[in-house]
């Protein structure tokens, strides 16, 4: 299970790379929008980093709660983007939301462990 947990974080890192590339291309002539889109990349990387740290520290319940909160917040962000573009089934929305949902599950499992 630990490799699945880390794999989901790795998928977020790969998604952040794609998000960066797409943002640089799409917002090439819009510096303000590009700035905020690249901040989204930072959020993705921070959620991935927190979850990678949590996976390496299975007995740290406080960190697990922080990772759970970050992951569920990113599920909300991904779904919010889906609503914004009018397509919750868009591959970008579905992939980020499902990966973050999986990380939420692993985080809650660690947070609630006795």
Description:
85% of the residues lie in helices and 0% in strands. It is mainly α. It has one domain. The longest helix is centred in the middle third of the chain and has 26 residues, at 31-56. It is elongated, with a radius of gyration of 15 Å.
Describe the protein's topology.
Layout: H1 2-26, H2 31-56, H3 61-85, H4 91-111
Descriptors:
114 residues, 85% helix, mainly alpha, single chain, elongated
Give a summary of the structure in a few sentences.
By secondary structure, the chain is an all-alpha fold. Helix content is 85%, strand content 0%.
What's the end-to-end separation, in Å?
18 Å
Total strand count, please? 0
Question: What portion of residues belong to β-strands?
Answer: under 5%
State the major sheet.
none
Residues in helices, as a percent range: over 70%
**Which term fits the overall shape?**
elongated
Q: What is the quaternary state of this protein?
A: single chain
Low-pLDDT parts are none
Based on CA atoms alone, the radius of gyration comes out at 15 Å
Mean pLDDT: 97
Count structural domains.
1
What is the chain-wise order of helices and strands? HHHH
Distinct helical segment count: 4
């Amino acid at each position: 299970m630990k490799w699945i947990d880390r794999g989901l974080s790795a998928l977020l890192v790969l998604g952040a790379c794609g998000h960066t590339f797409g943002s640089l291309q799409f917002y090439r002539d819009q510096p303000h929008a590009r700035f905020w889109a690249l901040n989204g990349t930072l959020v993705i990387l921070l959620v991935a980093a927190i979850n990678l740290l949590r996976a390496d520290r299975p007995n740290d319940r406080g960190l697990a709660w922080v990772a759970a909160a970050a992951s569920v917040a990113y599920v909300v962000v991904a779904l919010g983007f889906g609503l914004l573009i009018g397509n919750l089934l868009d591959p970008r929305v579905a992939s980020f939301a499902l990966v973050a949902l999986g990380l939420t599950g692993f985080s809650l499992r660690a947070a609630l462990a006795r």
